[in-house]
Amino acid sequence: MSEPLAKTPTEAEASDILTRLTAHRALGKVPRAELEWLIAHGTLESYEPGVLVARKGEPVEAMYIILRGHVSHLTDQGGTWRKAIDWRDGDATGLLPYSRLTTAPGNSVIQEPTELLRVASEHLPALPIQCPQLTAALVHAMVDRARAFKVSDLQVEKMASLGKLAAGLAHELNNPASAAARSAQLMADALTESDAAARAFGAAALDDHALAMVERVRTVCGTTPVTSVLSPLERADREEALADWLLDHDMDDALAAPLAETDVTSAMLDELAAAISGDQLRAALRWVAAGCTVRGLARDIERAASRVHELVSAVKGFTYMDRAASPEEVDVAKGLSDTLSVLAAKAKAKSVSLTVDAPADLPRARGLGGELNQVWANLVDNAVDAVSDGGRVTVTARVEGKNVVVRVTDDGPGIPAEVKSRIFDPFFTTKPVGKGTGLGLDIVRRLVDRNEGSIEVESRPGKTEFRVDLPVVE
């Protein structure tokens, strides 16, 4: 950090500074005498671009009145420095009256040639007595600064949540979308084979009794199969048994795969083989298997499309994208379900058991649904991060008194006692660099407060529980 050019203003410079302060946006309406006191206790400093006037974690020892120039404040968010606020001509920053600021939350960098009036911290206790109107103006500046930081923090956390949501949604959508695309590609070949099988079956010229037997088998093939409850090993055994039957009857064992996905049994095939044989049986089973294949692919496409629809509906419910941002009756149980849907991919990647237990008749709470879902998302995301591979995260919702109580519990190592009191502080995180912004739980606390709720945490090795209480709609 290079040293600024600093000096006590001369009489002529003091007069010039006074003129500039009377036109200052934040201090222009302050009485002349109070501005003169400020000048008498300050030093004029000049900075070149690139200079750090404050460094993260170091004490803030002065108040700065910006007379000319541009200063940007950058915060470290997950290992990346991002701009949080800009100060220009007419602003005041640094250690302001009644501020609890002790150390810089980030780096303040000079962006262009800048002149500041610096007032050291030892003069600030006298400000409320000597300069009451100046103090009031500076308090307004401090409130505006706090508001700007809060908006910046909320925006950063929303973007972080959006990134997590997008990553999880992309992963969840990829599986059903790929399945639908793959089944659609196979459908063209299946329809071609179905047409050829139908022509061969028609040429077989079966009598009415044989046709009725074939239609019976084909009807079983077309109904929703119950074989989906079989394990992969059981399904493989079933396919092998059908392949053996086909080979025993001098037929193509490739037909076993589509038949194995249906409820067609060897007994049905034996009954059919008793009625017809030879080329007629081969043509009949080829036609049945072709129909099974087409129907199976159609079911796969329908299931995949339904899963995509469910995910889109979950995201729509999670974000409340079609609702106005005003308090309303919120279905907490649905919000929890939607949240777990969009975070399921992350849990699967760690083989984490992620469950929600909320009764369907859970009373509604009053609040902003989108904000409450962001609360659930942050708490569940942190819980998944906290547990080891194969861990367990449980979300429950119950009515207790006049509140809906949501608990997010994990079986991770717990929160160390020495940091438990700081977990809701802004920019505090126990995650590695680049893995967390340190804003998640601070935002959670703010959002819960905005929704007239409360949040508490209990933690010990093997069990950490965050509890959120929300008022029930009367």
Structure summary:
This protein has 474 residues and is α+β, with helices and mostly antiparallel strands. Helices cover 50% and strands 21% of the residues.
Which tags fit this structure?
single chain, 474 residues, alpha+beta, 5-stranded mixed β-sheet
Explained architecture:
About 50% of the residues lie in helices and about 20% in strands. A hairpin with a 2-residue loop joins strand 13 (about 455-460) and strand 14. The protein has helices at about 10-20, 30-40, 125-130, 130-205, 210-220, 230-250, 255-260, 265-275, 280-320, 330-350, 370-385, 415-420, 440-450, and strands at about 5, 40-45, 50-55, 60-75, 80-90, 90-95, 105-120, 330, 355, 365, 390-400, 405-410, 455-460, 465-470. The protein contains 13 helices and 14 strands. Helix 1 packs across helix 2 and helix 11 (about 370-385) runs antiparallel to helix 13. The model is unreliable at about 430-440 (pLDDT under 50). The strands form 3 sheets. Strands 1, 2, 3, 4, 5, 6 and 7 form a 7-stranded antiparallel beta sheet that branches. A 5-stranded mixed beta sheet has the order 9-11-12-14-13. With about 475 residues, the protein is an alpha+beta fold.
Shape: elongated
The tally of beta strands, per DSSP, is 14
Give the amount of beta strand, in percent: 15-25%
| Straight-line distance between termini | 59 Å
Compute the CA-based radius of gyration: 35 Å
Major sheet characteristics: 7 strands, antiparallel
